[in-house]
Amino acid sequence: MTEGKGGIIWPFILVTLIWSSTWIVIRDQLGSVPASWSVCYRFLLGGVAMAAFARARGISLRIGGRGMVFAALLGVAQFVMNFNFVYRAEHYLTSGVVAVVYAMLLIPNSILAFLFHRQPVSRAFVLGSVVAVTGIALMLAHEYRAASVRPDMVLLGAALSVGGLLSASAANVMQGMEIARRLPMVAVLAWAMLIGSGLDALFAWVTTGPPVFEARLGYILGIGWLGLAGSVVTFPLYFRLIQRMGAGRAAYTSVLIPVIAMLISTLVEGYRWTTLAGVGALLAIAGMVVALRTKAA
């Protein structure tokens, strides 16, 4: 393996494996601590660590007034709305199913890119997207029929997942703006996480009361894993992948991540596969492969 290939393959593998594991770790965070406080702790740690990483690399954190406004908007979309939706969705759906829903991120990304930047969408991409959505619908139907919670709670979990998906998509489209290309992304991410964690704390205090923290070792390690590995390590690596591979091929992680996440969910959460769920998963993955191949082309 040449150094050039290694410079692509290893970051790709690391990002895929780490982000695959974060779904089940989020599930473990759902206990005595309100979801919004857990989100706050994660990105407070991530923001501080990202700022330290920027300073260690000699990257200035001074991004100007417009840069701070951009970082704040990015923080609201990515680190407040997106993750508050995700954490709540996992109250009602298994982590693997939520991960599969998030595999469709490229669909709203492409729709928003068409609306705001007039980037064309091919017929093959539309076909792949329809197949993927059909697969997701079958998996949700399986959840609806087999859920241990009330069926309407499954629908609520699906709605929360879609809300998070759209929030993440908005953040993705923002990163394609001209101002984002002019600013050091590590500094922007540090401010976005710090601002986002502050807003998470405000939202948590208003809706659930003063801070709550669980001294359990698993909870503390989970915050560390999500804040450091799942945020500080992966985001810079993913941007590096986009620079070297292009956004289309880098997005293949969104196909591999739910596959691994579903396997983890099967082992840890006892997810029970049926013919309906299996066909749905295959359709979701096949549809996203078709959509991503046309996007990469």
Descriptive account of the structure:
By secondary structure, the protein is an all-alpha fold. It contains 13 helices and no strands. Helix 2 (35-56) runs antiparallel to helix 9, helix 3 packs across helix 9 and helix 6 packs antiparallel against helix 13 (275-296). The two termini are 25 Å apart. The model has no long low-confidence stretch (mean pLDDT 84).
Q: SS-based structural class?
A: mainly alpha
Question: Using only CA atoms, what is the Rg?
Answer: 19 Å
**pLDDT < 50 stretches:** none
| Major β-sheet annotation | none
Distance between the termini: 25 Å
The helix/strand order is: HHHHHHHHHHHHH
Number of helices: 13
Arithmetic mean of pLDDT: 84
* Shape annotation: globular
Tell me the helix content: over 70%
Strand content: under 5%
User: Can you count the beta strands?
Assistant: 0
